[in-house]
Design brief:
single chain, 180 residues, mainly alpha, 0% strand
């Protein structure tokens, strides 16, 4: 019985995306609004986001070997995606450490606020890096079909695919062209 999806990378990348973006929002708000558990919440989100980014980078490196294409354009895009993923991981780790530091320095308001500012700045950088990483990953999948397996479908009977009487049959759409 198999519990983990194969390939694993596409199944895990969305967790750090959400955690880092929400963590960035919470960290920015925590700089000016230190009430309740918001600084702790930001630290937890950023810590989980950094952990998720590490898992995404590791799974991307192991699953990336499945996409060796020999096409220079796609290889360059995969390298750029990997570079941005590592930048995201680095920024998320810095943001998480700073956010945890801000929580631990809670008895020292000035130091805590300074650490919160560092956490917020690093979290915003991490969120921007998430965008860059995701943009390149999306281009790999949606423009180049990386990792996409097209299932063979049986040919439908001519009667099943015919348009109702009197209606023209529309030509197939080029979905990739429509997205650009």
């Amino acid at each position: 019985m198999k519990f983990l999806p194969d390939p694993f990378h596409p199944a895990v990348v969305h967790f750090p995306i959400v955690l880092i973006v929400l963590g960035a929002v919470a960290a920015v708000i925590a700089v000016v609004w230190r009430r309740g558990h918001l600084p702790r919440f930001a630290a937890v989100l950023l810590g989980l986001g950094a952990l998720g980014a590490w898992v995404a980078v590791q799974s991307g490196e192991s699953d990336g070997g499945l996409l060796e294409t020999g096409q220079p354009q796609m290889e360059a895009l995969m390298d750029a995606h990997e570079t941005w993923a590592k930048r995201t991981l680095t920024a998320a780790a810095v943001a998480a450490v700073a956010a945890v530091g801000a929580v631990l320095l809670g008895k020292f308001p000035l130091a805590s606020r300074g650490a919160s500012g560092v956490a917020a700045a690093a979290a915003v950088v991490a969120a921007l890096a998430v965008y860059q990483t995701g943009h390149r990953g999306g281009a790999l999948v949606f423009r180049h079909g990386a990792g996409v397996q097209v299932a063979a479908t049986p040919n439908p009977s001519p009667a099943a695919s015919a348009a109702p009487a009197g209606e023209p049959v529309a030509p197939p759409r080029d979905i990739a062209r429509d997205r650009d």
